Amino acid sequence: MNTTLEKYTIKNVIDGFVYNELEGKGLFGLSGKLTIQPEYQRNYIYASDGGKREQAVIESLLKEYPIGLLYFNKVNSDKLEVLDGQQRITSIGRFVTGKFAVKDANDHEQYFSGMAESQREKIMPHY
User: Model pTM?
Assistant: First the structure.
């Protein structure tokens, strides 16, 4: 097996992200080229604890902590599947699309769309 290091931005990875909690499988990113929840992956569970884990992913990004490598499996020349990282990717996608908020330093809920540009840049840099 050959392993190749590719670099993607969070913005690229969640491009085209749509979350439907009733669907459970088949979330997509990378403009449809990445299957975030292939059939062999478990359903999204980071929201099942009251959202603590999905909020922790966002708080890590805001503190500029690394969230670890994401592993993709190449299915064919232009299709990928997430092998490791779908919970983190789904958390980010859900946050950016307004499915949940995080608390700011003043204990106020902040949705991605209402954050200051400097905070949004920590989650989805424009480089």
Answer: 0.89
Within 13 Å and on the Cβ side, how many CA atoms surround 103? 6
List the alpha helices (DSSP H) in the chain.
10-13, 52-62, 86-96, 117-123
Going by their DSSP bridges, the two strands 79-84 and 34-35 should be labelled as parallel
The yes-or-no verdict on residue 90 having pLDDT over 90 is yes
Residue ranges in 20-85 assigned as alpha helix (H) = 52-62
CA dihedral 111→114→120→124, nearest 10 degrees, is 60
Does the pLDDT value for residue 3 go beyond 70?
A: yes
Cα distance between residue 24 and residue 98, in whole Å:
18
Sequence-ordered list of residues with C-beta below 8 angstroms from that of 9, at least 6 positions apart, any chain:
124, 125, 127
18 pLDDT higher than 90: no
As a whole number, the mean pLDDT across the chain is: 89
Q: Tell me the sheet residues that pair with 28.
A: 35
